[in-house]
Design a protein that fits this description.
elongated; five-stranded antiparallel beta sheet; 50% helix; Arc Repressor Mutant, subunit A; 522 residues; six-stranded antiparallel beta sheet; Beta-Lactamase; alpha+beta
Length: 522
């Protein structure tokens, strides 16, 4: 059967249309239509974009929609519609071209403006440097750089975000630092988002999600964070990203620090730089940090350690003096000593301004901590290193959480068995839950990313999870047909098939039989 719209679109008469084969309407090698038919037969309905040949020989880009249904006599039929979208595509192309031209024009204009801005900035920066060198001594420059470094490398509240479940574990110190009382140490991403100020919210969230969808292994950012009492804190965050075998981010483990006091101290130092002694400044900065801070004067070979260092690692500070400079390397794990010594000596000899290192550090009680060192190398006007100011951060907790987030080989068979049990239970014993999204449910129940679970299952069983689910549903259909208490329509509704045709097609694909024939055999 055909209608006037189809005849008008193709240019054929009713008789010509009815006498033509379906495939003769499409251009040679048209695969979209065949793909659409396969999808329709499997799922009951499908949509595709194809090239249709008119009687005149002209081809049109059309959108074809087809659905299968069963009439009152139980006969499967299909209804197919074709819509000419060539004009729509042409208009969209014109819109895209105009947008592209506008974007190019804006880029040229923006580059021109940016060049002028950068030229003005370069002149201003050059002038400011000269003025700063005339007005400030070397000690002020070192102090200023030191305070900024502390703000970047010190953290207060530890947190662990399970991206799959959405749950964020936060340390107890969140109440002390930001005033929030958290039940069971658990919050969700929307709670974090609510604490961002309106002017920064979109920017912070975009940077976070862009990082998660990239292949980066870490995320860091600085932003304003609303405290429980309504006041706003300046904060900085740093986190490690745990990814599954496909590279998808499944966990974020890190910390956030309120650096408001550090910024206040930096401001006071700028106002009173000539009145502050270097040792006093370092002492104040160390009290504001929750990390092990150290300061190595390369000229005098003096070594400064903060009080926090003793609390973290157990070694006394000896009133910020002693033999720590000579013995420093002996506190590191024997397997790491050579690399650390070479790394820091190379950094001192080179023109670099920073040094970073992750290694094992032996605590006073003999236990071993995984630590992250980050230091600023301060140089004189000739570029020679004069001192190193650093922060040692104990990341043992983060590394343990990261390791716990990744399943071991021994756990994989158990995990596969759990996947099977959950699916069997849902299909055979929990009809009301069959309408849920299986991938989301499995991820939530097993606390793993679905892509990881799917690949693990396919590798072990030789079939994807999706096919295992279909096989279990067909087994359930067989049980219900044999029981004889429900019609095929009722079975389709019970197991949440989109239609009887969908159920019948899937049943035949798996068993090679139609549901009706299977019922006759049993």
């Amino acid at each position: 059967m055909t209608n006037n719209a189809a005849r008008k679109l193709t240019g054929y008469s009713k008789r010509e249309l009815l006498n033509k084969s379906i495939t003769s309407f499409f251009t040679a090698n048209e695969s979209s239509f065949r793909k659409m038919l396969r999808q329709r037969n499997a799922e009951g309905q499908a949509v595709a974009r194809v090239k249709v040949l008119k009687k005149s020989g002209e081809s049109l880009t059309c959108e074809i929609t087809s659905a299968v249904f069963t009439d009152e006599d139980g006969i499967e039929k299909a209804i197919t519609t074709i819509a000419d979208i060539s004009q729509r595509i042409l208009k969209q192309k014109e819109i895209d071209n105009r947008k592209h031209e506008l974007v190019e024009a804006n880029i040229i204009l923006a580059k021109s403006k940016q060049k002028k801005i950068e030229e003005k900035k370069d002149k201003k920066v050059a002038h400011d440097i000269v003025v700063a060198q005339e007005k400030s001594d070397a000690r002020f420059a070192e102090n200023n750089e030191w305070i900024k470094h502390i703000a970047k490398t010190s953290y207060d509240v530890m947190w662990d975000w399970d991206i799959v479940t959405g749950e964020i574990y936060v340390g107890d110190s969140i109440e002390e630092v930001f005033g929030y009382k958290v039940q069971n140490n658990t919050v969700y991403f929307n709670h974090f988002s609510h604490c961002l100020i309106r002017d920064e919210k979109n920017v912070v969230e975009k940077k976070l999600w862009d990082t998660l969808f990239s292949d980066n292994k870490s995320w860091d950012d600085t932003y304003m964070f609303r405290r429980c009492d309504g006041s706003v804190a300046s904060t900085t965050s740093r986190a490690s990203i745990v990814r599954d075998e496909q590279g998808k981010a499944i966990r974020l483990i890190g910390a956030i620090q309120d650096v408001s006091k550090l910024q206040e101290l930096e401001k006071k130092l700028k106002e009173n730089s000539n009145e502050k002694d270097n040792s006093e400044i370092l002492l104040k900065a160390s009290h504001l940090s929750f990390e092990g801070i150290w300061h190595w004067n390369l000229v005098t070979n003096e070594f400064f350690l903060s009080d926090r260092f003793e609390e973290l690692f157990g070694y006394g500070t000896n009133h910020n003096a002693g033999d720590m400079a000579a013995d420093w390397v002996n506190y590191f794990h024997p397997d790491d000593k050579e690399a650390i010594t070479k790394g820091i000596n190379d950094a001192i000899a080179s023109p670099v301004m920073y040094w970073e290192n992750t290694c094992r550090f032996i605590k006073a009680d003999g236990s071993i901590a995984k630590v992250f060192n980050r230091a600023t190398i301060i140089r004189n006007k000739d570029g020679k290193a004069s001192r190193i100011i650093g922060v040692m951060h104990d990341i043992s907790w983060q590394m343990e959480k990261k390791a716990a987030a990744e399943p071991t080989y021994d756990k994989k068979p158990v995990l596969i068995e759990k996947i099977k049990n959950i699916i069997v239970n849902l299909v055979h014993h929990s009809d009301d839950q069959l309408q849920m999204n299986f991938s989301d449910y499995l991820s939530k129940e097993l606390h793993y990313d679905y892509t990881y679970l799917s690949n693990l299952f396919s590798e072990a069983e030789g079939i994807p999870i999706r096919k295992f689910i279909i096989a279990q549903k067909i087994e359930r259909v067989k049980e219900l047909i044999i029981a004889g208490e429900l019609t095929l329509t009722q079975i389709a509704l019970k197991l949440h098939y989109s239609s009887i045709a969908h159920l019948s097609n899937q049943f035949k694909k798996v068993t090679g039989l139609t549901p009706s024939y299977f019922k006759q055999q049993h």
